[in-house]
Amino acid sequence: MNFGDIFVPALMVFILCYGLAKKVDIVNVFCEGATENLKIAVGLIPMLILLMTAVGMFTSSDAADIIAKLLRPVTTFLGFPEECIPLAIVRPISGSGALACLETILSSVSPDSYSGRVASVLMGSTETTFYTIAVYFSAIKQKAYPSVFAAACLSDLMGFVFSALAVRLFFS
User: Fold this and answer.
1) 118 three-state secondary structure
2) Where are its TM segments located (predicted)?
3) Number of domains into which the chain is organized
4) Structural domain includes residue 142
5) Rounded distance, CA 40 to CA 42, Å?
6) Per-residue DSSP letter, 25
7) What's the pTM?
8) What is the pLDDT of residues 107-128, one digit of tens each?
9) Residue 87 domain boundaries
10) Alpha helices in 26-145 (DSSP H)
């Protein structure tokens, strides 16, 4: 038995005992919290449907391939592998689409190749930026500012460049 096996049950027992000691109506407080979070979840559904539809349209079209061809000279200059360009395009938009791109890359080249390693590092060090921004700003009912998108895109770009650099530094 390890610590992880007993942590969650022990935490639940602690919360129950603490609530009882403070004379809190635990069931009522739990129901209030669940109701509030359910309202937030229902409010996110339209944004999630929009994102899923847009991602489906983007991945089923040849848009990623067209963008990859346009970016190829720049990525070649930066030492970013050609096979990873579609992953870099899809990753900020869709986690599942990026996972499919990663699977395609790893099945076409060796996972221990330069491209396979860059794809793996890129997948682990970047975020589904547009999804995250849409969900968080939708939850707080605010409009996302252009500066948020600019900063997020810049951080994604740095993640792409530094994933290739890190692989070159650590595996060359």
Assistant:
1) helix
2) 40-59, 148-171
3) 1
4) yes
5) 6
6) -
7) 0.69
8) 999 999 999 999 999 999 998 8
9) 43-171
10) 26-60, 63-78, 85-90, 95-108, 114-125, 129-139
